[in-house]
Amino acid sequence: MAGGTPRATAFNLDPREAGLVAVLLILAAVSWIVSAVQTAGMDMGRWTDPGPLGFFLTTWVVMLAAMMFPSVAPMVVAYARITHHRRESGRYAPQGSTAVFVAGYLISWTIFGLAAYALYAMVASLIPGLFVSDPGGRYLAAGVIFVAAVYQLTPAKNVSLMKCRTPMDFILRRIRYGRLGALRLGLEHGAWCVACCWALMVALFALGVMSVGWMAVVGAFIALEKMLPWKRIANRLVAVALALIAVAIAFAPAMVPGVGM
């Protein structure tokens, strides 16, 4: 306990919190299945066309749940713990606040997805043929992925990753009460998560945004650097992995699963 507020850890979840984690993981698992069905036959390698806006938006939100819910679970549990503690002590904490918090998080990432889609469509219309698998698209994809590797080493990445890795500290410093407060806090956490992982998601566009395999790889990168206790090591490992993928795509594309041509 600190200032009357319980501190959440991975080892002292009560049954309600364990159930919340289970729900998030089940939703993630279902989202993986739905993503596989939605994108069946659409993975055309590097720079796969994301399709019409409506289809992309639906696919993007489901993909976010699949990729992000496991790594965002500690933040959701911390928020649920604080609101439950307030409710038990007779203070204002309306039911459903945790769901609204998660919705705010997804909204931030949806805004990013729409911006990325708009940029992709604009560039594709201005420079036809830029986003093709070979030959220029290969080097463009490698360059984008290498930029994502470099971003892993920047101060901006370090600051935003710390916000994602310290759930109780993040929430206690920014807590707002009520459903509107939950939405604002979810939006803010989502914005920090975007700041942390935007380069990884852009790299996913380069690898093939409709590829379930690459979704799993990028999702694993996100989970590793947010959840492993060794932040610096995890961050550097992801940077090295991205750099190696970029080099392989540029110089030995046939060796990279799902992108060789």
Concise structural overview:
The chain is built from nine helices and no strands. The protein is an all-alpha fold. The N terminus is likely disordered.
User: Which range does the strand content fall in?
Assistant: under 5%
Radius of gyration (CA) equals 19 Å
Main structural class? mainly alpha
Task: Specify the biggest β-sheet.
Answer: none
Number of helical segments?
9
| Number of β-strand runs | 0
Mean pLDDT: 84
Ends distance: 57 Å
Shape: globular
Name a few traits of the molecule.
261 residues, mainly alpha, 9 helices, 0% strand
Describe it for me?
- The protein is mainly α and 261 residues long.
- The chain is 74% helix and 0% strand.
- α3 (97-126) packs parallel to α7 and α7 (178-208) crosses α8.
- The radius of gyration is 19 Å and the shape is globular.
- It starts with 14 loop residues before the first helix and ends in a 10-residue tail after the last helix.
- Residues 1-11 have low confidence and may be disordered.
Layout: helices, strands, pairs:
Layout: H1 15-38, H2 53-88, H3 97-126, H4 136-151, H5 155-165, H6 167-174, H7 178-208, H8 212-227, H9 231-251
InterPro entries: PpoB2-like (IPR018688)
Organism: Arthrobacter gyeryongensis
Transmembrane segments: 20-41, 53-79, 100-127, 139-160, 181-201, 207-224, 236-256
